[in-house]
Specification:
The structure is a single chain. By secondary structure, this protein is of the alpha+beta class. It is about 35% helix and about 25% strand. The chain is built from 15 helices and 24 strands. The longest helix has 25 residues. The chain is globular and about 75 Å long. The relative contact order is 0.07.
Length: about 500
């Protein structure tokens, strides 16, 4: 998300906006009517809140707006028992960063609201900046981001020298503006006021590296050498072993935490719990049209503007626009009573796709962004299920290699990235099960994996490696009628 999107507003916008009340705050959602105003004190002008940036249910709301004619970020803490403590921790963390000379948005106002039921921090808003997570997601290659990754790594080394530790370290907490790196989220900052010891530093650096995803081991080593140089360390083999073991540990923790997150109400996701349907959806996409789909998913398949991509017995796939988004919806059908009996007590394929797609994306494996899944129930038995994902513009691999030219190095680059995709899936102890060339799209020179219905998660790396060999064998059958393409992949394998 580019954070410099606050537009100039007419002078009368503030007068027309509604007042943010205690009831509104505790029931606010990402699609809330905007703008609205927040009164801080009787003496200060109100804040014009224009956009809901983040919601942590029953704890915190983050808004973007304007105050005293300057862009601001507003953090509202409203936990029934811990609002003041959360606000104080955030304020103290920010003050600790500022006192150490670490770039972070300044506090412009802080204090109680609604008779002490809530607390507010009004922060400087850094315009025309982008968080590291968005830059990482939008990259076309690692090389283009190397200067920024190096700058953030050096920033981490600086913080560790100053004794500062970010307990909730992730890419969204780094904001990049030009050559400047800003650290966000003071609520999880601890200042030891002395140089961090090596083991603690390595453990923390491993948490940062785990965010880079699977298949980035060489990048870990490059950035670690830069970090060690910044700290003046002589790197020893045991340091590298400790770092890699810590990355593996953090990956396991991140996976366990995230797989719980995608199955419950939180700031990013919301659950659907009705008598006849269960599911989850991404709050970012919530709109009146999207809500209508959640209430009646079958209506999408009768929409006048929908386009059928696949009409099979076991599944139907369509593409259509919902609100401002172009989406793909896959409906998993029940072919006959026997098929229904076999499937009804199992985990639905839509729920499985939701879990696997989120897991792959967590570790940087490209697959269409999952938006929602819904499974229909009747008397406790499952029937149809629906999986919605973002539409990906791209050409499938089969069509892409119809134009293969042996002397064109670009095709080899794509082939390498495709095989790296398969290796990364195996590293996650997964296998696809149906690696047809049509199940891989090429979007902006990057392979994107489709059709996760047949994917399996393996308990050991050995079984994952065995399944990888089967996946490759199936993949190579795609090129039986294109011997030059087959020779290219065989050479790279």
């Amino acid at each position: 998300m580019v954070t410099g999107y606050i537009n100039d507003t007419p002078h009368d916008t503030l007068e027309k906006s509604k007042e943010l009340t205690w009831h509104t705050l505790t029931h606010i959602h990402s699609s809330a009517d905007n703008p609205f105003q927040l009164t801080l004190t009787d003496q200060d002008p109100p804040v014009l809140c224009e956009t809901v940036l983040r919601i942590v249910p029953k704890k915190r709301v983050v808004l973007a707006g304007t105050w005293n004619e300057q862009p601001v970020a507003v953090k509202l803490f409203h936990s029934s028992r811990h609002a003041k403590r959360h606000a104080d921790e955030e304020r103290e963390g920010i003050e600790s960063l500022l006192a150490s000379g670490i770039p972070t948005p300044r506090i412009l106002f802080h204090g109680p609201l609604f008779k002490g039921h809530a607390y507010v921090l009004v922060l400087e808003y850094i315009t025309d900046a982008t968080n590291l997570d968005d830059l990482w997601q939008q990259k076309s290659s690692v090389e283009e981001l190397m200067p920024i990754l190096q700058a953030v790594t050096i920033e981490l080394a600086t913080q560790h020298v100053l004794g500062i530790l970010q307990h909730d370290l992730h890419f969204k907490n780094f904001l990049i503006k030009g050559n400047q790196v800003y650290t966000l989220d003071g609520g999880n900052i601890e200042n030891f006021h002395e140089l961090l010891p090596k083991d603690m530093s390595l453990e923390h650096l491993a948490l940062f590296f785990s965010e880079l995803g699977v298949g980035t081991e060489s990048l870990h080593n490059t950035l670690f050498q830069m970090y060690a140089q910044s700290r003046g360390w002589l790197v020893k083999p045991k340091d590298i072993r400790f770092l890699h073991a810590s990355i593996k540990k953090w990956n396991k923790k991140r996976l366990e935490s995230y797989q719980k997150k995608i199955q419950r109400n939180c700031s990013a996701f919301a659950s659907i719990q009705k008598t006849t349907s269960l599911g989850m959806y991404d709050r970012h996409y919530l709109s009146p049209d999207f809500q209508a789909f959640l209430n009646h998913p079958e209506s999408a398949f009768a929409h006048t503007q929908m386009e059928v991509l696949k009409a099979g017995q076991s599944s139907t796939v369509i593409r259509l626009s919902i609100g401002q988004e172009t989406v793909v919806i896959k409906r998993h059908n029940m072919k006959n009573p026997l098929h229904w009996m076999r499937r009804t007590l199992r985990k639905t394929r839509a729920r499985k796709s939701w879990k696997l797609a989120n897991t792959l994306r967590l570790f940087g494996v490209a697959t269409p962004k999952p938006i929602a899944f819904i499974e229909k129930h009747f008397l406790g038995f499952k029937s149809k299920s629906y999986f919605m994902m973002a539409h990906v513009e791209g050409q499938n691999l089969s069509d892409y290699f119809k134009h293969y030219q042996p002397d064109d190095a670009h095709f080899e680059k794509i082939a390498v990235r495709v095989l790296d995709l398969f290796k990364n899936i195996a590293k996650l102890k997964m296998s696809h099960g149906d690696l047809k060339a049509t199940n891989i799209l090429i979007e902006r020179d990057q392979p994107v994996l489709l059709d996760l219905d047949g994917m399996k998660e393996h308990k050991t790396q050995h079984t994952a490696n065995q399944a990888y060999k089967k996946d490759i064998k199936r993949f190579m059958k795609n090129w039986n009628h294109q011997p030059m393409v087959k020779a290219l992949f065989e050479r790279l394998l």
